[in-house]
């Protein structure tokens, strides 16, 4: 899969996949989208001080970094972060991203390097607040833990690009893997997705989307 770096409107890099005509993050602002969707409307709404998070689509590590950024101002909180990626991004591309210039919390550059150099398939303590497990596998083959996660960051490619990742079967696995009151958050607000989530028993909260999108979806179990 060919991938090329492009600069989104807020100055942060994302990756474009020419053969799919699809980008990893919003061209209207990759960093802005990550903070808005997964942090402000996901992690920030959880109650407690220790959370299990599952991310669909590790990609460039941007959502892991915004989670670490959030933790830097929530010093009594810990996150166990599982993330799945079928096609890991090459080290060469990672080294060319401008993420080291985007974050200024303590040890942000060191932590960015650590999340990408950590071994796949192992739980790695990135710092005292953040444990990372990167899973190299197709989502369709992944065995979810039941009643385990507090929040799911669903950051797969759009439904019209990878329809199989948004199947009712996978959404059911997501529902089952969440704890009661756990949340499923995504940039997508398609009608079929909302109908499927409601049918599974989720309570939907339609929130304003990041720049370039009218809405996003938060679904509560």
Describe the protein in words.
This protein is of the alpha/beta class. The protein has six helices and eleven strands. The strands form two sheets. The chain has an eight-stranded mixed β-sheet, with helices on both faces. A three-stranded antiparallel β-sheet has the order 1-2-3, with no helix packed on it. Strand 10 and strand 11 form a beta hairpin. Helix 1 crosses helix 2. The radius of gyration is 16 Å and the shape is globular. The termini are far apart. 38% of the residues are buried. The mean pLDDT is 97.
Morphology: globular
SS-derived structural category: alpha/beta
Radius of gyration in whole Å, from Cα? Answer: 16 Å
Q: List low-pLDDT spans.
A: none
Report the span from N to C terminus: 35 Å
Helix content: 25-40%
Order of helices and strands: EEEHEHEHHEEEHEHEE
Which sequence of strands runs across the widest sheet? 6-7-5-4-8-9-11-10
Largest sheet: 8 strands, mixed
Which properties best describe this structure?
26% helix, 3-stranded antiparallel β-sheet, alpha/beta
Summary?
The protein is an alpha/beta fold. Helix content is 26%, strand content 29%. It is built from six helices and eleven strands.
